[in-house]
Amino acid sequence: MATIPKPGTRVGFTTTIPVEVLLAAGLTPVDLNNIFITAADAYERVSGAEEEGWPRTVCAWIKGIYTTLQLHPDIPTVIVVTQGDCSNTHALMELLEAEGRAIIPFQFPYPRQRGQLQGQIEALTAACGTHEAAVHHVWQELQPLRAKLAELDRLTWETGQVRGQENFRFLIASSDFHGDPAAFGEELRDFLAAARRRPPQRQGVRLGLVGIPPIFTDLFDYLEELPVQVVFQEIPRQFSMPYPCRDLTEQYLRYTYPYDIFARLADIRAAVSQRRLDGLIHYTQSFCFRQIQDRLLRQNLNLPILTIEGDRPTPLDHRTRLRLEAFVDVLRR
């Protein structure tokens, strides 16, 4: 078990965790996925991991996280989600620990169970050196910020005043709030004020994007060229914790990503109806077990679905561009 990190320490994590715990402890949360994929040299970071011996057939996100940590000695502690995300994180955790990085493991219980999740949150709270009352206070403080994120999402699907790419940018960042919820909240407040002054946009094919966040660097730019309105983004929206809850444990119990596919299906069905979706793009990551779930999506969702696959942080390849264009043309007709 890692030594309790000192207040002010930057603490990385491999996927969304109860960020309220870190904030209550005075720590700076860092979603390692976000700092990897927004780096100008993201592609080179994946290649760099392979040069150090990582297999070609391992997810690029894991390799990118590893190399990113090598470039950030200022992140001495990492919370590794060992259940509810990716089995590759087990090996990543062992490698980081062998290299001297402090590790705090966290698990989302499978099957979903409140008592077990509460125990994991309590263990994380102790490992970070804080207490339940402080965590609850931070949870309450974040509710207005999360309400603003819900409003941004509404302006995306209901009025079209927020573009899909803008929706993605804010919702994906809600996993760590860029390490500073107050500054993030001010940026979001100013953006919403400007968005509300825009005229409503209710034209074009209405698409939802499901599956893990895409690694492609120009997907939204290309979809806007077609043109398409992306009015539902399944996993980024989940990062924002969109459901009203009575406490922190319920909030992360209703968060669909780390559990079974069936809660995700219910969430997607509701979005299809409410947001009047014409079709779905299912993004799958090369070498990821979640590719298998594509079959269940198709069996249980009654609307057109296009599945696309990405490997590394690159622009869309020609074949994927053609498939997207053909899919949108069919939906338009």
Task: Describe this entry's structure for a reader.
This protein is of the alpha/beta class. It has a domain at 10-133: Rossmann fold, CATH 3.40.50. Helices cover 50% and strands 14% of the residues. It has 15 helices and 8 strands. It has helices spanning 19-24, 32-37, 42-51, 60-70, 88-98, 114-127, 132-159, 164-173, 181-196, 219-225, 234-239, 248-254, 261-274, 294-300, 318-332, and strands at residues 10-13, 28-31, 77-83, 102-107, 205-211, 228-233, 279-285, 305-310. A 4-stranded parallel beta sheet has the order 2-1-3-4. Helix 1 (19-24) links the parallel strand 1 and strand 2 (28-31). The chain is globular. The mean pLDDT is 96.
List low-pLDDT spans. Answer: none
State the end-to-end CA separation: 58 Å
> Largest sheet, if any?
4 strands, parallel
CATH topology of the domain at 10-133: Rossmann fold
Please give the number of β-strands. 8
Could you say what the CATH architecture of the domain at 10-133 is? 3-Layer(aba) Sandwich
The helix/strand series, from N terminus to C terminus, equals EHEHHHEHEHHHHEHEHHHEHEH
Radius of gyration: 20 Å
Structural category? alpha/beta
Q: Kindly state the percentage of residues in helix.
A: 40-55%
Cross-sheet strand order for the largest sheet: 2-1-3-4
What best-fitting shape do the alpha-carbon axes yield? Answer: globular
Mean pLDDT: 96
CATH class term of the domain at 10-133: Alpha Beta
Q: Classify the beta-strand content into a percent band.
A: 5-15%
